[in-house]
Amino acid sequence: MSVSAPAMGRATADAPQSLSFIIAASSVGTLIEWYDFYLYGILAVFFGQHFFSPDISPTISLILSLAVFWTGFLVRPFGALLFGHIGDLVGRKFTFMLTLGLMGLATFLVGCLPTYDTIGTLAPILLVTCRVIQGLALGGEYGGAATYIGEHAPDGKRGFYTSWIQTTATMGIVTALLVILAFRLGGGDAWFASVGWRIPFLLSAVLVLVSGYIRLRLRESPLYAKLKAQGKSSDNPVRDTYTSGKNWGLILLALFGATAPEGVVWYTGQFYALTYLTVVLKLPYVEVYLILMLALIFGAPFFVVFGALSDRIGRRAIMISGFLLAVITYIPVFTAFTTYKDNPVILTLLVFYLVILVTMVYGPIAAFLIELFPAKIRYSSMSMPYHIGNGVFGGVVPLMGTSLAAIYPAIPLVGLYYPIGVAAVGVVVGLLGFKGASQDVKIWDEVGGR
Description:
The chain is an all-alpha fold and 450 residues long. It has one domain (19-216, 229-447): Growth Hormone, Chain: A (Up-down Bundle). Helix content is 76%, strand content 0%. It is built from 22 helices and no strands. The chain has helices at 19-42, 44-50, 58-74, 76-89, 92-110, 116-119, 122-150, 158-187, 189-194, 199-202, 204-216, 222-229, 237-242, 245-280, 285-299, 301-313, 315-339, 344-362, 365-372, 378-394, 397-407, 417-433. The N and C termini lie close together (8 Å).
């Protein structure tokens, strides 16, 4: 199937679908899945109040709530294993439709859960169950959507086209913040803390139905369809992915030289900054939400800027530069948060800078991972290091930072030592482990061209 890029329109059964429609349809579903996944992180303080015993301290309940948040990250690699296998075996489209439905269901159920006051210790158990389903679903979603777009994009412009889907995680946070802010301001803090926190989760059902309808119009990835027709697809993607020593080497290089450092930069620049401003500096939530939303909105276009730039100068150079800047500047930036805590303009600029680092390391990474692995096991291979790096290494940043600050209160900014260390590993492994220019990889050569 040939792919053109005219203005988005309704495609007929025979006409090629425009690349703009393909990107939009893939991205809207991914944005909603990120919205679903990160609602919990933003509302973690409320879950601490409602789902754990009132006899424990607020600090411990917050840490427990963040620990439950992390369970969704811990199972993401298992979702990558399961849905990556299905995606390489059955197809890209079917798999990310399935993950979208699972994510929407689990998020909706979070909004329906009874609290600790109603059912006791069963409440956090049910909450963890929903987070596990969310994590499994997200473990399959990102790899499917990124691979789908990457396998439509022409060689030489893959960084630009896949960078659009890289914006969805950040815009998912913005969407979640906007929805939460609207209901908190509209209903008042007391109402929101009591029952209003449920509504953003319940709204997920409507959003998922809309995005599901849009995604149903998509067809299978043309590269995958051609691979299948040529008999080159894998009949056992798990075996082919995890019994190859060469592929394991690529997975480990991707993990420690790209996705783990990218993950800690992502969560430090967005979620840990949110936690730090609200919990440590105790700034009003409205001010913090507005600061974060402005920084994210103005920073989001740079995902595309750095994605497109990576087509010209390489993925690795841009990502390593972002890792190095994180190592050098995290302590000064968070120190400045304290110094300028009464100046929202400077705070917004500081968060904007952190978001720019996020765009440097995250904008090119989808194209980087797609080009690193062969087509027949691409979904499985790229999903695993991505979700271990982002889920296990990156997702623990808010929990690790809060816990270290509670354990070592005398050490200033001790919560930053972990992301700085992982980012430093990324600089070393990225410089020593990856050779050549990944942007020159021509993935269509595997099937004889377009």
